[in-house]
């Protein structure tokens, strides 16, 4: 009987050695912030009553569990083995050598004599070399990054007083929430901007965490003058392509539609509107000149008024003369001509004194009139001076 004791001890030792735990990490050289998938795999032949496993924290990495623990039976080496798996995502915080583990699985097992006893199974540590993040700023590394930009209205054609609501949703596959960048500032000197509180959410998935951040702004131009709200570039490391990429929040035009319509529609004013505008301008100029002239001495004031009347393009006596010529009433033409010439002499404008000679010859039959001179030509001669 004694000779069987060593055999039993060997069998028990073999059964104990069959319980194992290891850390499985793919062959890779991650960059700072990149997700490293880690699988804890235990293979047990003992009957397990209770178990507890805590993944160790470290100042060198962040980590999260991706899915619930899995227990299943597998055939290994011709015998049935109880397999335990836990999937972990590790995110290095700095460049250089990284050690993960050791990890201990604390078990309570049931022996053949029905007694329970504790059993600690430990996975030895694994080591990785972490590369620096290939850009400045937040080390954002992900399998994929998408930007969704929604606007409540056309930003370049807002109604007067309208506020634009802009919502940008950033979704990163394989990144933790705190590794996504902070909300960018949307400020311009001509813009009133209010930012709503941001929302960051994360959900685990078999391939890694999916993180979403939502930024919302309420934007309104101060004056309505058109402007451009500059775009924002978000650099990130594509862990599948192993290269840097850039996600863009696009630039958008901004302003009230009424400002644009007023600016482009200046040439489309109706005749009445244009006339009113010109009259208002002329009235303003005349009013200003009147203020200046009122402060002069009587003689200088008279000279100033004379010079002002000479500069004005509007001559009521000339218009009256042309109207009389069109009607063909020669006596009326003669009277209008006298008023026209009197005004020119009063203003010091050139007058030859022979403007009415042809007209007087036609009207009064004076001698010396040029032969063949009709009433139309005699009236036209009134506008020849000097």
Describe the structure in your own words.
The chain has 386 residues and is an alpha+beta fold. It has helices at residues 5-17, 257-264, 271-294, 298-311, 316-327, 330-346, 357-364, 375-380, and strands spanning 20-24, 36-44, 47-53, 61-65, 70-76, 79-92, 96-100, 103-110, 116-123, 126-130, 141-142, 144-151, 164-173, 191-195, 199-203, 210-221, 227-229, 232-238, 243-249, 252-254. The longest helix has 24 residues, at 271-294. The strands form 6 sheets. Strands 1, 2, 4, 5 and 6 form a 5-stranded antiparallel sheet that branches. Strands 12, 13, 14, 15 and 16 form a 5-stranded antiparallel sheet that branches. The protein has 3 domains: 15-130, Sandwich (Immunoglobulin-like); 142-259, Immunoglobulin-like (Sandwich), CATH 2.60.40; 315-383, no CATH class. The protein is 26% helix and 35% strand. It is built from 8 helices and 20 strands. InterPro entries: BatD. The chain crosses the membrane at residues 274-296. This is Protein BatD. Keywords: Membrane, Transmembrane, Transmembrane helix.
Summarize the structure.
The chain is 26% helix and 35% strand. By secondary structure, the protein is of the alpha+beta class.
